[in-house]
Specification:
The complex is a heterodimer of chains A (about 550) and B (about 325).
Chain A (H helix, E strand, L loop, with lengths): L1 E9 L3 H12 L4 E5 L15 E2 L8 H11 L6 H21 L13 E2 L9 E2 L5 H15 L4 E3 L1 E9 L2 E9 L4 E12 L20 H8 L4 E2 L4 E7 L10 H4 L3 E3 L7 H4 L9 H13 L8 E4 L4 H8 L1 H11 L8 E10 L2 E3 L11 E3 L4 E2 L12 H21 L8 H16 L7 H15 L6 H18 L13 H25 L17 H4 L1 E8 L2 E8 L13
Parallel strand pairs in A: 1-2, 1-9, 2-6, 9-16, 15-17
Antiparallel strand pairs in A: 3-5, 4-5, 7-8, 8-9, 10-15, 10-18, 11-14, 12-13, 13-14, 18-19
Chain B lengths: L2 E7 L9 E7 L8 H11 L19 E4 L2 E4 L5 H4 L5 E5 L6 E3 L2 E2 L2 H9 L19 H11 L6 H5 L1 H5 L6 H11 L7 H8 L13 H5 L6 H14 L6 H16 L4 H8 L3 H6 L1 H9 L16 H14 L1
Helix pairs in contact in B: 3-7, 4-7, 7-8, 7-10, 11-12, 11-15
The chains are: A alpha/beta (about 550), B alpha+beta (about 325).
């Protein structure tokens, strides 16, 4: 079928929901298309909280500077200023929408400490902040009766006259291909964690939106900036919130030392994530780990704090590691968690492809530069989701629908039929994805070298070649997750190539990128963003200067 | 360890009815979860297996299914904790929702019920410049319901929904309390008036299944009971449910056991409803199954002790 809306939001995490709400408020006919159901998105996984300079003695400038410093001076300061200035009102709006934030004794919003922040400016709902926000976002979608194409998998963007005009998508329930035309498209499809193995990310985080935009000609920016979170469980990669350290938990090595005293004497466990993850990896590499892990110790926080403010991670440690946080420290290790890079956008979510907007982890504005501070990602979703929604509605108001019809629909349908119709003699997506994940983790992880990156580029190219000949075992129409896994793998391979190329190009160490062969930050040559364009079967790289408004780069210590 | 999965399969395109397929996986790690095992099957053994899953950390609510007959999240269930003596684990789709394929059920029923309770905060009056000032204790209390991840496990195993598809069900009603109990919500009265209608809070039969299966400790039934207390306190007393609970308690308090016929009769609010019970009563009488009622409802030995328990509890309230 062919559907029409003014604005189409792809993805139903908090960035998607917030942008849809704003486009709706601006009077646009907006719809959401998502490959899962709205409350299933990965926003859920954000545990610790959301930042804003709301408290007494705090200021937006302080929040902005902490973010700039956290980014290792790679973040664009105009965007960071907007983030910090608009954070307070956006959080108050979330409270008005219904989010049940933790309060102080007077009934006002209460905050907690978080990594890389000089004030306690993280507002939270126990350790389920993302879930609590996402569910309220969904409530608002129901309130405003915004239509949702649930369990629709986007296969490509409609391009016409160099503009994005909607997308093609498979309805998982029926296997049918549909066309959703729109005068503006907002990409809110989250990160690409599944290109790494292990990762804290959900199985749905496969970089679909990044790949679709990239394939349509929009560049990806700073893709080498991949965040490893300091506290993930070894068994399944599950995340334990930074809120634990915010509440005062320690990191300990096999000798029982609080090793962060060596690496970040002032901020200790609450230094920025890149610093803590690297410190942990160094401890492990130098033989002071325990089976490839160090320990997170919450015992001194007491049962009351653990059970009320950290209840989810109490359950996670119990369910997945068999450890009672009240009584024992839990083994943890750095795990791939977030990508600071994404589709390049301006401060209103505009990508370099007219008609296409992006917000959230999919986008790179760039707020987080080389390293994202904890609790700035939920904030990004609401501030820049809102701004992208408004800008997309405005664009749609002065734009026309595409003339594309059945012929364009058949194009994607034929591609899918061809893939499904192949005799099942090729390799399958699952094992190939595992190879990709291991390749990326081994060579594009916490510590990188030109040698490892060149190897990864070669391996990804080989995987792409093998991918061309894969087959799909499930030939059915209804809920064919085998087919979507194959399409997702194609998306991850494209995005992974851009990650590797960005990392090889950036010959310095900054934020999450640590090159053993270039161990220092090089402001003279690399105070700039990397851009990756898809150029046929290859990648064309470019750079863009960093926007500096008021904070000149200085040496970063915690 | 070895894992022996017995999975209910159904493909609407080719199968007339569901069947079971067994998958034996060897050399799995000790802590392997049911979801890990199912993913292993889907990626390396049988790609046609249909299921939903995403976060692997029991927060997205995608992978609820029946494991050994009880709904739960596959990602938080370790195989070693549920394997039968013969090593097998039976995996089936959730109940009370039609199966689309294998372990994938049609969730529309679930979302519609959530939508039916008016699931968004309804404030009135001038919007404050800053946050609403409210008691933290009241907010912390709501976290119990906000912890719901809408996985559908409670709806799957709800015994009332199995008999009456119109029941709002445990997930939606727990969500309803989230607004009734929120001091910022200005529509408490209308909400309660809505939730006491047929299909609402009085249709729960306290079977406790939702409490037992909820993987997040939300205990939906407890919130339904809380809604009942709130509704009664707000004056919604002219309801069969309210009369039912009162007569039930009085009858047990006085005689030590339940006067079933009186309970049925006095629960009914209208003469028409009372008369509708007459044929059932007559049939019971004809078959000698009418329980002793009224003056014939004798006191059980020890009834005085039961009465004392009631009185002590009432004194505490």
């Amino acid at each position: 079928m062919i559907f029409e809306h003014d604005v189409l939001v792809i993805g139903a995490g908090m960035a998607g929901l917030r942008s849809a709400i704003e486009a709706n408020r601006a009077g646009a006919d907006v719809a959401i298309l998502t490959k899962v159901y709205p409350v299933r998105s990965h926003t859920n996984a954000a545990q610790g909280g959301i930042n804003a300079a709301l408290g007494e003695g705090d200021s937006w400038e302080s929040h902005a500077y902490d973010t700039v410093k956290g980014s290792d001076f790679l973040g664009d300061q105009d965007a960071i200023e907007i983030l910090a200035q608009e954070a307070p009102s956006d959080i108050i709006e979330l409270e008005h929408m219904g989010v049940i934030f933790n309060r102080d004794e007077e009934g006002r919003l209460g905050s907690r400490n978080f990594g890389g922040a000089t004030h306690a400016r993280t507002y939270f709902v126990a350790d389920i902040t993302g879930q609590a926000m996402l569910h309220v976002g969904y409530e608002q979608i129901l309130k405003y009766k915004i239509p949702c194409y649930n369990e629709f998998f986007a296969t490509s963007l409609i391009l016409e006259g160099g503009e994005a005009k909607g997308c093609l998508a498979i309805e998982l329930r029926t296997g049918e291909m549909h066309m959703v035309k729109a005068k503006a498209v907002i990409m809110c499809t989250g990160g690409v964690g599944r290109a790494f193995e292990p990762s804290t990310n959900a199985l749905i985080c496969t970089g679909d939106g990044m790949a679709l935009a990239y394939q349509a000609g929009a560049p990806l920016m700073d893709m080498e900036m991949v965040q490893y979170h300091p506290t993930t469980l070894p068994s399944n990669g599950a995340l334990l919130t930074e809120g634990a350290r915010g509440e005062g938990a320690y990191l300990i090595n096999s000798l029982g030392e609080r090793f962060m005293q060596k690496y970040a004497p002032n901020m200790l466990e609450l230094a920025s994530r890149d610093v803590v993850s690297r410190s942990e990896q160094t401890e492990i590499n130098e033989g002071r780990g325990i089976n490839g892990c160090v320990l997170l110790d919450c015992r001194h926080l007491g049962e009351q704090v653990i059970r009320t403010k950290l209840s989810q991670i109490y359950d996670l440690a119990k369910d997945f590691s068999g450890i009672d946080l009240v009584k024992e420290p839990v083994p943890i290790r750095p795990g791939m968690h977030y990508i600071m890079g994404g589709i390049k956008t301006d401060v209103n979510g505009r990508t370099m492809l007219p008609g296409l907007f992006a917000a959230g982890e999919t986008a790179c504005i760039s707020l987080h530069g080389g390293n994202r501070l904890g609790a700035n990602s939920l904030l990004e979703l609401v501030v820049f989701g809102r701004r992208a929604g408004a800008a997309a509605a405005e664009h749609a108001a002065r734009s026309q629908h595409s003339g594309a019809g059945e012929k364009r629909l058949k194009q994607d349908d034929d591609t899918i039929r061809e893939l499904l119709g192949r005799e099942d003699k090729g390799e399958h997506a699952g094992p190939l994805r595992m190879e990709l994940g291991r390749t990326m983790h081994e060579n594009v992880g916490v510590y990188r070298t030109a040698e490892g990156l060149t190897k990864a580029i070669g391996l990804v190219a080989q995987l792409k070649e093998r991918y061309r000949r894969i087959s799909v075992g499930d030939k059915g129409q209804v809920f064919n997750t085998n087919l979507t896994a194959a399409l997702e793998l194609g998306n991850m391979l494209d995005v992974s190539e851009a990650i590797c190329r960005g990392s090889l190009m950036r010959e310095e160490s900054r934020g999450a990128q640590f090159r053993l062969d270039f161990p220092d930050r090089n402001d003279e040559q690399w105070l700039k963003h990397t851009l990756a364009y898809k150029d046929g079967d290859s990648v064309r790289m470019d750079t863009l200067p960093v926007k500096i408004t008021r904070w000149e780069p200085v040496k970063r210590t915690y | 360890m070895d894992v022996n999965l017995r999975v209910q399969r159904y493909d609407p395109a080719g199968d007339r009815k569901p069947y079971y397929e067994e998958y034996l996986l060897t050399g799995q790690p000790e802590g392997v979860t049911v979801l890990d095992a199912l993913i292993e099957v889907r990626e390396n053994v049988d790609e046609t297996l249909g299921m939903r899953c995403s976060c692997r950390s029991s927060i997205c609510g995608s992978c609820a299914m029946r494991i050994n007959g009880q709904a739960t999240l596959a990602c938080k269930t370790r195989v070693s904790s549920v394997a039968q003596p013969d090593g097998s684990v039976t995996v089936e789709p959730m109940g009370n929702m039609p199966v689309l394929k294998d372990l994938v059920v049609d969730f529309e029923i679930f979302w519609n019920k959530i939508n039916d309770i008016g699931p968004w905060l309804k404030t009135e009056g001038p919007v404050p410049e800053r946050e609403y000032i409210v008691d933290n204790e009241k907010m912390l209390n709501l976290i119990g319901t906000v912890g719901c991840i809408m996985c559908g496990a409670c709806v799957s195993d709800c015994t009332v929904l199995a008999a009456d598809p119109d029941f709002l069900g445990p997930a939606a009603l727990a969500k309803a309390y989230r607004f009734v109990g929120d001091p910022r919500d200005a529509h408490r009265e209308e909400r309660l008036a809505d939730y006491v209608k047929d299909g609402g809070i009085w249709d729960c039969t306290h079977c406790y299944y939702c409490v037992e299966v909820c993987p997040k400790g939300v205990a939906p039934m407890e919130w339904i009971l809380e809604l009942r207390r709130e509704a009664e306190a707000a004056g919604h007393t002219n309801h069969n449910g309210v009369r039912h609970s009162k007569v039930f308690a009085e009858s047990v308090k006085e005689a030590g056991w339940l006067d079933e016929a009186k309970l049925a009769m006095e629960s009914m609010g209208s003469l028409k409803e009372k008369l509708s019970l007459v044929p059932v009563g007559l049939r019971s009488l004809l078959h000698g199954k009418m329980p002793p009622t009224g003056p014939l409802h004798y006191k059980r030995p020890g009834a005085d002790h039961v009465k004392r328990i009631f009185e002590e509890l009432e004194a505490k309230e």
